[in-house]
Design brief:
Oligomer: single chain
Number of strands: 15
Helix content: 25-40%
Strand content: 5-15%
Length: 494
């Protein structure tokens, strides 16, 4: 872990502000506040926050700043670490070195006294409600993919419950049409922020935004003043100031926590390991990004067992940083245990680490049925890692009632109603086919969005599902996937 990540200013000449309006204890070079971003010199993404000289209000040279893509880029050049601050100070003092007296004085300079956190300004509730309108879900690419396009589609009832649990919504107009909304709702059921993510057919992220930014751009384009709530909301520095899923803590006061980085990962975790039906089930929460693993956010977890799944990163930087922070947090949060598994760190290939993959990237390749009804093990003794046997191991309260969420599935394929006899005939035909061929041992690509990794497991799970649900049109996709897989194998045989 480096000093910049801990927000510790190393021993370099202190460069105070000299203007009459500035405190003599205030550091002169800081990251620019607000939401403005620049293009990162390393990854060329518009995710770079630059350092400014608060005495002159000018930017430092363009290489000084921090990239927000921390697990994939983490370009952070600090002017206090590479000699820039020292050079400027020497020039302004017209000296070429330091005397013993000067050095002695610098050692006793302290950071500015922390100021109390300002009261948060919450996102507009009526605007949030619009994202939950029932007819929107048929246009939600992320949710429809869970029904139709993942390798092991989830049940309609499970997806509906997860949408209700986390209050996922949909953007239906503008450049983010079809995107999913992830609301950050705090433990007091107040909406802190709404993240907007646009996904492709494989549920990989195409673009990220925030709903307040989208609304602001819209009003700017039509040359109209911003709503009063948005004017106040956008002026605050910290908008994502709570955990994703935090509102569930009051509803499930005794459950253990599974903590990940991104909201999407928390959704996949819930779909795979199941919803919190009793006090032993996990509640999946997300911090937002790498630097959000902070005491201010995690203090709400006091008294809980917290199973932590950091994203992969080059040289294990994220894992090591979070684990080190967690030890310090435990000393300040009585009864709280942060439990880390190093399984992915040990087994993941270097490419996955460099790409910043997370637990969801591994879960989605496997059948979710394998993970249900799995008991959470008793946490290990302090300083031990959690060992995993497998390769991956109510409506929120608001000032006014929330509408009932109804998730509708868009019928990509027009299914015809079929009776049990028709199902029986097709199942027998499929079983006979699969029993009389030698199944391939390598992955088989069925279509543009589906690759069967384990043919035997795929056939077994799908045959079991269609036999148990004969005649139920909700489960026709399972029958059709078997038929599509049969056709693919037949073509390869011929």
């Amino acid at each position: 872990m480096n000093n910049s990540q801990l927000n510790i200013v190393p021993f370099v000449p202190f460069v105070p502000c000299t203007s009459s309006t500035s405190s003599t204890n205030q550091y002169r070079y800081t990251l620019e506040k607000g939401s403005k971003k620049h293009y990162c010199p390393d990854c060329n993404k518009k995710t770079f926050v630059r350092y400014i000289d608060i005495e002159t209000s000018n930017y430092l040279p363009e290489q000084y700043g921090r990239c927000d893509r921390e697990s994939k880029c983490y370009n952070h050049l600090n002017p206090y670490l590479d000699g820039y601050a020292k050079m400027i100070w020497e020039q302004e003092q017209n000296i070429t070195g330091f005397t013993k007296v000067a050095i002695s004085k610098q050692r006793f300079i302290t950071k500015p006294k922390p100021q109390p956190e300002p009261e948060p300004i919450f996102f507009d509730f009526d605007t949030f409600l619009k994202t939950l309108e029932p007819e929107r879900y048929e246009k939600n690419i992320f949710i429809q993919n869970l029904f139709n396009k993942v390798q092991y589609p989830f049940e309609v009832d499970d997806i509906t419950k997860v949408v209700q649990l986390y209050r996922l919504g949909t953007i239906t107009e503008g450049y983010r049409a079809g995107a999913n909304t992830f609301p950050f709702i705090d433990v007091n059921d107040k909406i802190r922020a709404i993240q907007v993510k646009e996904f492709d057919e494989q549920n990989r992220t195409k673009g990220t935004d925030f709903l307040h930014s989208i609304i602001e751009k819209h009003y700017t384009q039509i040359n109209k003043p911003l709503p009063e709530w948005l004017e106040r909301y956008k002026e605050q520095d910290k908008k994502i100031s709570c955990l994703f899923g935090e509102a569930l803590l009051n509803k499930y006061p005794n459950n253990p926590i599974a903590l990940v980085e991104a909201p999407k990962t928390a959704i996949y975790g819930t779909l795979y390991f199941g919803l919190p039906n009793d006090s032993n089930d996990l509640i999946w929460l997300a911090v937002y990004n790498k630097s959000s693993f902070s005491f201010d956010k995690l203090k709400v977890l006091e008294g809980r067992y917290v199973y932590v799944f950091p994203d992969l990163s080059k040289d294990g930087n994220t894992f090591n940083e979070w684990k080190s922070k967690a030890k310090e947090f435990e000393s300040r949060l009585p009864g709280t245990r942060f439990i880390f598994s190093d399984l992915l760190e040990k087994l993941a290939p270097e490419q996955d680490k460099n790409e910043g993959n997370d637990i969801a990237d591994y879960l989605i390749k496997q059948d979710w049925r394998k993970y249900r009804k799995r008991n959470i093990k008793e946490p290990p003794q302090k300083n031990e890692s959690l060992k995993i046997d497998d390769p991956i191991t109510e409506v929120i309260r608001q000032p006014e009632p929330l509408p009932k969420v109804e998730v509708k599935r868009k019928n990509i394929v027009r299914y015809t109603s079929e009776n049990n006899n028709s199902w029986n005939d097709k199942i027998r035909e499929l079983e006979a086919f699969f029993e009389n061929i030698e199944l391939p041992t390598q992955p088989i690509k069925v279509n543009t969005y589906s690759t069967i990794l384990d043919c035997s497991l795929f056939i077994e799970s799908h045959i079991e599902t269609v036999k148990a649900n004969k005649g139920n049109k909700t489960f026709l996709p399972y029958l059709h996937r078997l038929q599509e897989f049969k056709n693919t194998l037949s073509e390869n045989i011929i």
